[in-house]
TrEMBL record:
One Pfam family named in its UniProt record: Mannitol_dh
Organism whose genome encodes this protein: Lapillicoccus jejuensis
Name under which the protein is recorded: Fructuronate reductase
Domain Mannitol dehydrogenase C-terminal, first and last residues per copy: 274-453
Keyword terms of this UniProt record: Oxidoreductase
Lineage: Bacteria, Bacillati, Actinomycetota, Actinomycetes, Micrococcales
Length: 457
């Protein structure tokens, strides 16, 4: 039986004025930035207009609900449902005219982004100008054809350019994607497009923009039909676009806001001078731990993070990995790393968050260099071979050889070729694809080969 649909009038939830524009509207942004804005002490002053990537369906579903959606916080002991009111406008990413108009609006003070690392089209000089979509955006910017813009940096450049030419004061750009120094990434991409398009007005104005670096952390699995049914059953209403997330959330920000911003610190966000120590802590302990569980746990037949961490062998190796990585985590408050490890175990063992290993294994060729290799290099500089780090690499080699979860990597075909054949040849070939220095280190090669052998059937 269907329940009542979501709507602002029925729930007495008036829309706040649009003062934040978000690019990349999806599950994570709604579990994180939009939710945090709803919980700020001045939430009534801050409405969010969100633009999807390519999808029109999500925007249509949310628009039919006046932007309202349910956040299902899934703890080990049950679900908590909350209707989040801060998203006041949901638009398809292709509605660039509306995006540009909002970014140029003096009332808008903040632009946030979650477009994934690939969405920035990084390259030498800030952007991959040879990429067809980027090249097309450069031409569209030159010609003023904003409706034709397809990339996030191109669309953002158009909005900022319109704001500059309207004589409106700069705002803050707050990327929330999981990559180091994310503010520099978006700044450099926008600058590269503006330079290539010959937009001298924008180039001179960009120096006043507040480029805010962030570290964000909240596990948000993809929403399923079962989740939609759970909201109907538990809440008694229909929601076509709920989001499921975990109880834990963390947001660390560094940078200037030229204008106003929500009081995010009232929701637990931390404003610091340097985000880098927190980025490393997350990349090495959480993301590195995920990679370990995905490749080793997948090789041992597990399907989810909770399944893998319940395996005593995986759990011991995870703890060993954290011991190996911890000495490099400097610049954090006293007691931060032990507390974070304790919180991670609570999160990883939550059986009601089905975080699939098949999702985590994707693009290991891009993830392992930032998650695992810094700790490996530090140990080798001290003459040690870190057992957990080389085991992750051995498990990745086994993964590429078809053992465990299916391979999903932008370089999958090349990596499978490298990983094929005798291990004496395959291991240095695969390691060399990550870092040629690893292939030239006989102790590392021998340790990874032994780890691979142990994991293969």
């Amino acid at each position: 039986m269907n329940g009542a649909p979501l709507g602002r009038a029925a729930r007495g939830l008036p829309a706040s004025p649009v003062r934040i524009v978000h690019l990349g509207l999806g599950g994570f942004s709604r579990a994180h930035q939009v939710w945090a804005t709803a919980h700020a002490s001045d939430a009534d002053d801050w409405g969010v207009a969100g633009f999807t990537g390519r999808s029109t369906a999500l925007a249509q579903r949310l628009t039919a609900q006046d932007g309202l959606y349910t956040l299902v916080t899934r703890a080990a002991d049950g679900d908590r449902l909350e209707v989040v009111p801060s998203l006041v406008e949901a638009r398809a990413g292709g509605d660039v005219d509306r995006l540009v108009g909002l970014v140029a609006d003096p009332e808008v003070q903040v632009v946030t982004l979650t477009v994934t690392e690939a969405g920035y089209h990084r390259g030498d000089g800030g952007a991959d100008l040879a990429h067809p979509a980027v090249a097309a955006d450069v031409e569209a910017l030159r010609a003023g054809r904003v409706a034709d813009l397809a990339t996030a940096p191109g669309r953002l450049a158009a909005g900022l350019g319109a704001r500059a030419r309207a004589g409106v004061a700069p705002l803050a750009v707050v990327p929330c994607d999981n990559l180091p120094d994310n503010a520099a990434v978006v700044r450099d991409a926008v600058t590269a497009l503006a330079r290539a398009a010959g937009d001298t007005d924008l180039l001179g104005w960009l120096g006043g923009v507040g480029w805010v670096t962030t570290m964000v952390d909240r596990i948000t699995p993809a929403t399923t039909d079962e989740d939609v049914a759970d909201v109907r059953r538990l809440g008694g209403y229909d929601d076509a676009a709920p989001v499921v997330t975990e109880p834990f959330t963390e947001w660390v920000l560094a940078g200037s806001f030229p204008g106003k911003r929500p009081a995010w610190e009232s929701t637990g966000a931390r404003f610091v001078d340097d985000v880098a120590p927190y980025e490393r802590r997350k990349l090495w302990l959480l993301n590195g731990g995920h990679s370990l569980l995905a490749y080793v746990g997948g090789a041992r037949g597990h399907a989810t993070v909770a399944d893998a961490v319940a395996d005593p062998g995986c759990r011991a190796l995870l703890e060993q990995w954290w011991d190996e990585a911890a000495p490099g985590l400097t610049g954090l408050p006293e007691g931060d790393v032990p507390a974070y490890r304790t919180a991670l175990l609570d999160r990883f063992t939550n059986p009601r968050i089905r975080h699939l290993l098949a999702q985590i294994v994707a693009d290991g060729s891009q993830k392992l260099p930032v998650r695992i290799l810094p700790t490996l290099r530090a140990a080798r500089a001290e003459g040690r071979v870190p057992v957990a780090a080389v085991t992750v690499l051995g498990a990745w080699v086994a993964h590429l050889r078809g053992h465990g979860t299916p391979v999903r990597d932008a370089a999958a075909d090349r990596l499978r070729d490298l990983a094929g054949g005798p291990l004496d040849r395959a291991v240095p070939a695969v390691l060399g694809a990550l870092d040629p220095a690893l292939a030239d280190d006989p102790e590392v090669v021998a340790a990874v080969r032994a780890a691979t052998t142990d994991l293969l059937p």
